[in-house]
Amino acid sequence: MRMMASGLLAALLSCGFANAAEPPGPSPWGPIAMIHAEPFDVDEAHSYLGFTIGFLGMTKVRGSFKKYDAWVVYDDKDPARSSATVIIDVDSIDTGLEFRDKDLKSPRFFDAAKFPKISFQSERVERIGPDRYVVHGTLEIRGVKRAVDLPMTQTVARQADVGWGNVRVGGSGGLTLKRSDFGISGGDFWGGKVLSDEVEVVVDLLASRGNFEKWNFQSREKPSAGEAAWKAYEEKGADAALATWAELKKTHEAEYNFGASEAALVGNKLYQRGQPAAALAFFRLGLESAPKQPAGFHCRIGEVELSLGHRDAAVAEYRKALELDKDSAEAIEMLRRLEPPRTASSR
Predict the structure, then answer these.
(1) Which fold has domain 26-209?
(2) Which residue intervals of 120-237 are DSSP H helices?
(3) Burial 24-54 (b: 16+ CB within 10 A, else e)
(4) Which of 62, 111, 175, 176 lies 20 to 30 Å from 293, alpha-carbon distance?
């Protein structure tokens, strides 16, 4: 897959996935000592959040949500200690008929204008058998929160894929909900005569950590400052990479591409190579470039700070990300891992 420029930065600021021209070696990712687990982005292109509802007692209507943000903190030694946050964009509902989707977004059903997001957050994970778990958590729809139990089967053990070397983990499951429990009535006609109250939910998630060893710099109109910096790193080390970027910026700024994507890719490559201090410097350079996704840069800086054992600095970065994007599943999930629960007296 060759990334277009419009989506490149967003992918670089998640755990991402990459294009490989040859069979890759495994990515050297692993758990972060401070949280004893490993953060994963959910690969939307290869995951599925769907539902099925009875129609007239004769057949079923099927649909899915096409846009969502999900973050998993996974403990490979004990998957039951994993956790996840999922934020779903209600406006992305798709049942295959435009007029029906419009109706489902209306106040009679999801009321997307007033309640644009559906959220799920795990509270605990219970092991019930080999590769089988129940994820106990809270689901919020239309402002109504309900405790739910989501049975899941781990379908992909933590491993590097054979295509790109991205580290993957995955699971599938589902549960049955009552839409009336969340105030989704549909009105007297739809609610009482046409649609069943029970809705079958299907979850199929593939999470990923990108193998940035296989990412290529894709600057087209100008030479990439990031590529020049990376070449300097491979020849002389991290200090040379930073010095090359600074020197080119000083003497050839108009001739090179110093975009946020260039800095982000160098930062990701350095972090994967075990150079967190240099990675931080490049992520901060990217943030200075006024990117379209500043929250993503704060998340990347937060993760690197966390890997260095700097809890307070990491918390500060994730808080900044959440201020910029209140629906950042990554920031929400990482902060609840890092911050102690608030008591009634501390609120």
Answers:
(1) Lipocalin (2.40.128)
(2) 187-189, 225-236
(3) beebebebbebbebbbbbbbbeebebbbbbb
(4) 111
Question: Which one-letter amino acid corresponds to residue 220?
Answer: R
Lowest mean pLDDT among 17-31, 220-234, 290-304: 17-31
In the three-class reduction of DSSP (H, G, I as helix; E, B as strand; rest coil), residue 278 is classed as helix
Q: What is the model's pTM?
A: 0.89
Closest by CA to 184, choosing from 99, 101, 108, 117, is: 108
3-class secondary structure, 40: strand
Q: Which of 121, 18, 108, 20 is nearest to 329 (CA)?
A: 121
- The CATH fold assigned to 214-338 is 1.25.40
Q: Where in the chain is the domain with CATH 1.25.40.10?
A: 214-338
Does the structure show a pLDDT above 60 at 346? no
Helices (H), the chain: 5-12, 98-104, 187-189, 225-236, 238-251, 260-272, 276-288, 294-307, 311-324, 329-338
**Phi/psi of residue 224, each to 5°?**
-85, 125
